[in-house]
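Hi all, posting the design record for the shared folder.

TITLE: backbone redesign
STEP: 1 of 1
STRUCTURE INPUT:
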């Protein structure tokens, strides 16, 4: 399938040909006189469509609708909210192939990864539906006679969801569907590199809401980070800002939200590392590292960016890894045989080139790749060759996240050293150890081991399941989303003391004789 055929199929099938509004506040904003942003396909530079952006007035309309909707939605009992999440999951399932195709066209993921992205949103929908009956609070033993002490969770209100380009549907679902069953409404500001996906997903979710006669709980506010993003971050009506993106932007989002005492969830950059010990199953480790470093053209927050390999197996491991890299098909992600699609845009290609030049200045030796790639029939595409760079010292550019398929490989001699190097970066998202020795693996997942939010044993740093809480430490921002009890971020915890006696006994033995 070429870009034109795929575009026709996805846009027709998803009903996007008639919609070019990027704002939904119970109805789609009229687009006359509005500034539009074009969605450019990274496979061949073709324009896929354009989406009209909201201004400050449109933002006000979105917020007014959100506040009104919250009053009604928060009164719906949680299991009823869960049914809506379930219905949205069913609609996403029906449209999985088309939505996946749109993700491929807009951000360049392979067909399999595009479909996987939508599957992740579907999985979250079923998780949210089940969760809606499990929003448990605690009952705590009270120290006072005839008193009951308990904890309950109320919805927060309006949640701002600012998302990155690389998971243009799944990250919305992680936030919006979990927040919805808690009783919140969400205002989504998607990445300007993935606007069509945002419009398509919002349309599907809102059709479910509308046919159930409910108020608009999934609002959409497309616009630039500097305008709409900034408005959301600084708006006191937004109780929680969930931000997914680079550490640089996230730092300022976190600071601004905190300055107005708003809550934030920050899901920022990673610099993920795999440690391969002498006791590793080498073939398995090679597959795990190759997937982590190459999949999604290195544009996952969990992509493997560093590999620490024991010196006794280093040469063997590198030979096998470069063999895999030599066989990897780079090309149009619409071709099912392609494993590596394009980077998202030309700026990303420039970052790839700059990073390689900087690594070379630091005495990095290129073992594979190092160049842009001219893919067949995609001459204006943003393709690069997955690159392996051998380095002696972890410093400079290696401490930074470059959103491209660049893997730094290093030798180590003992596991304690490897863990120290592993942890000596500012980011703390995902990590992996490849070993069949339980002492090594247990050490790595112990408190003395990896300092990341996510740790993997004998599997890749990339490819998390939705059931666990997702997020990382240090400059990755400390937020947690998706599974486990991450729903609590979207709720207001309330501690309740009930006295059912005839006296007022005080805690801590305090006496107040009146
Ligand atoms: P980005 O920081 O460029 O943009 C993210 C979002 O922030 C976009 O919607 C953008 O419009 C918005 N934005 C920009 N300026 C803003 C401002 N001043 N105020 C408010 N919003 C603003 O990131 P990106 O290039 O889209 O995504 C890649 C980055 O996201 C990588 O660093 C990656 O590691 C990170 N990421 C992290 C996770 C995670 O869960 N930890 C997941 C996916 C991506």
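Okay, here is what came back for every position:
SEQUENCE:
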């Amino acid at each position: 399938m070429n870009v034109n055929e795929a575009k026709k199929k996805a846009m027709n099938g998803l009903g996007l040909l008639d919609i070019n509004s990027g704002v939904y506040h119970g109805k789609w904003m009229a687009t006359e006189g509005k500034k539009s942003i074009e969605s450019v396909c990274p496979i061949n530079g073709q324009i896929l469509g354009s989406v009209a952006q909201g201004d400050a007035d449109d933002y006000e309309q979105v917020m007014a609708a959100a506040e009104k909707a919250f009053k009604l939605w928060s009164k719906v009992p949680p299991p009823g909210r869960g049914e809506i999440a379930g219905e949205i999951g069913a609609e996403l399932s029906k449209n999985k192939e088309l939505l996946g195709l749109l993700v491929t066209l807009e951000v360049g993921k392979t067909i399999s990864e595009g479909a996987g992205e939508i599957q992740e949103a579907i999985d979250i929908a079923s998780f949210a539906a089940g969760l809606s009956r499990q929003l448990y609070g605690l009952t705590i033993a009270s120290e006072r006679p005839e008193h009951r002490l308990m904890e309950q969770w109320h919805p927060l209100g309006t949640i701002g969801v600012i998302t990155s380009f690389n998971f243009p549907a799944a990250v919305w679902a992680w936030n919006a569907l979990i927040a919805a069953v808690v009783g919140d409404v969400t205002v989504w500001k998607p990445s300007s590199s993935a606007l069509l996906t945002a419009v398509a997903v919002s349309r599907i979710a809102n059709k479910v809401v509308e046919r159930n006669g409910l108020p608009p709980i999934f609002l959409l506010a497309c616009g630039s980070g500097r305008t709409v993003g900034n408005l959301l971050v600084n708006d006191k009506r937004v109780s929680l800002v969930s931000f997914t993106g680079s550490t640089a932007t996230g730092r300022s989002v976190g600071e601004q939200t905190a300055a107005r005492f708003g809550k934030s969830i920050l899901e920022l950059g990673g610099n993920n590392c795999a440690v391969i010990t002498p006791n590793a199953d080498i073939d398995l480790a090679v597959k795990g590292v190759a997937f982590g470093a190459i999949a999604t053209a290195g544009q996952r927050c969990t992509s493997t960016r560093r590999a620490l390999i024991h010196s006794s197996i280093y040469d063997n491991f590198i030979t096998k890894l470069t063999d895999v890299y030599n066989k990897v098909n780079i090309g149009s992600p619409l071709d099912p045989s392609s494993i590596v699609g394009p980077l998202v845009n030309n700026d990303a290609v420039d970052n790839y080139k700059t990073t390689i030049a900087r690594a070379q200045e630091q005495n990095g030796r290129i073992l594979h790749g190092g160049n842009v790639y001219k893919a067949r029939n995609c001459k204006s595409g943003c393709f690069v060759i997955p690159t392996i760079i051998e380095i002696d010292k972890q410093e400079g550019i290696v401490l930074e996240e470059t959103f491209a398929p660049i893997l730094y490989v290093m030798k180590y001699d003992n596991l304690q050293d490897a863990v120290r190097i592993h942890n000596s970066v500012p980011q703390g998202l995902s990590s992996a150890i490849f070993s069949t020795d339980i002492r090594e693996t247990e050490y790595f997942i112990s408190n003395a081991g990896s300092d990341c939010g996510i740790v993997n044993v004998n599997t890749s740093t990339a490819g998390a399941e939705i059931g666990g809480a997702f997020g990382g430490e240090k400059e990755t921002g400390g937020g947690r989303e998706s599974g486990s009890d991450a729903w609590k971020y979207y709720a207001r915890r309330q501690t309740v003391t009930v006295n059912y006696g005839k006296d007022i006994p005080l805690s801590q033995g305090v006496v107040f004789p009146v």
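COMMENT: The chain has 14 helices and 22 strands.
Let me know if anyone wants the other runs.
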